């Protein structure tokens, strides 16, 4: 260990019974590793978690399918079932219907029998997610409990990918020293069952009034900053892409409230699913205008709209960017701090990319 740690790392799977809302973050930190100015060594963030038990694996497959179907894919499969039924193709109709409904039933049985959490942010699905995705969190000393901070934090996460599964609500609460308010697309609050889940984990519709109100209460806010447009960015073996050039509104909120902006890069989010991007960007334009995702994707073993590949994820936090409080910030001030935020994303990516095994990659901001 470095005598003067500059970065901390926590493999969430190592928490075990400590993953509980009543356990202070100081106890979690006893499971941390630390590193100096150079960060963690090459490929150190690629370490794998233990294999899942059959029950854990089943819960993650069905839980992910449940999330995907409730997010809109279920409409696709049930529509196909209805079309097949109307055409007299009863066997395919039953298959599509069963494919949509069976994961719900299996997951609910597992949840009822095995979940003992008092807080939905600490449920069995989060514990299994830690293991399934070998989930790691890395943060600088400025976010450690020993650091003294003033004012709220705005966590800015990229890339969105198909679904940013590396987000662990409890970890953001712990690192921000308080329950975090999450921003989600307003359309998600209109989906059956989804609204209840989002409200339980502390999410709110993405609008200026909600964000300003949370910051005025001196509460932290978190947002997946590239949003729907971020789902349609094409990555390669040598380049990651973050849709951030037009994302200046969050900087205005930070300046108005005097909040600090924290860049967070989710290494591995772009590899969870294989996206099918049309060359004319038609789906992207429709999705952006409707604020919903219409991107086709393939998951585990080429599974259409299926569960995620099992790849390691590392959520890496950059240093907080302190913003002076400006009740009415000028466009020049917004542009200036937006540039600082983009630079912080690049610095965070470049600092830790070798540790994730991406030495050859660069981050392009569009």
UniProtKB/TrEMBL annotation:
One GO location term (cellular component): endoplasmic reticulum membrane
Main location: endoplasmic reticulum
Pathway(s) it belongs to: Glycerolipid metabolism; triacylglycerol biosynthesis; Lipid metabolism
Membrane topology note: Multi-pass membrane protein
Keywords, ordered alphabetically: Acyltransferase, Endoplasmic reticulum, Glycerol metabolism, Lipid biosynthesis, Lipid metabolism, Membrane, Transferase, Transmembrane, Transmembrane helix
Subcellular location: Endoplasmic reticulum membrane
GO biological process: glycerol metabolic process; triglyceride biosynthetic process
Molecular function via GO: diacylglycerol O-acyltransferase activity
Transmembrane segments: 65-91, 97-114
EC number in record: 2.3.1.-
Record bears the keyword Acyltransferase: yes
Family as reported in the entry's similarity comment: Belongs to the diacylglycerol acyltransferase family.
Protein name (database record): Acyltransferase
Record organism: Cladocopium goreaui
